[in-house]
Amino acid sequence: MVRKTETPARQAKPAARKRAAAAAPTPARRKKAAPRAAAAANDRIGEAAARNTLAVNPLIGIRASDFGEAAQALIGAAVTQPVQAARHLGAYARKLGAAALGNTAHELDPRDRRFADPA
After folding, report:
1. For a Cys-Cys bond, which of 11, 18, 86, 103 suits 98, CB 3.0-4.6 Å?
2. Three-state DSSP state, 38
3. What is the pTM of this model?
4. How many domains does the chain have?
5. Is residue 94 part of a domain?
6. Cβ of 69: how many Cβ atoms within 10 Å?
7. Structural domain of 91
């Protein structure tokens, strides 16, 4: 009977499998990693909201750096999602044109004193 000897490559496979199994995410590891990933995502969202929301403040004014960051965020969104940006721009242009022609769907409240001036 001829006995086959295992090559070093075949001997290494079980060890590699064990390492891969040990490194694979287990349910316990996924549970620990999920809150960290969610917290990091919340931090990024919070920072972006603070940058973009506070860019124009009527009490403080607008700084050139704030204007630049807002423009960069707008252009970045348009570059990453061009179809959605084009849709929004088209809808904005239609509504702006309708408002300029006086064809808006919004009716003024007759009790609103701001628009009661007969002049």
Report:
1. 103
2. helix
3. 0.40
4. 1
5. yes
6. 14
7. 35-103
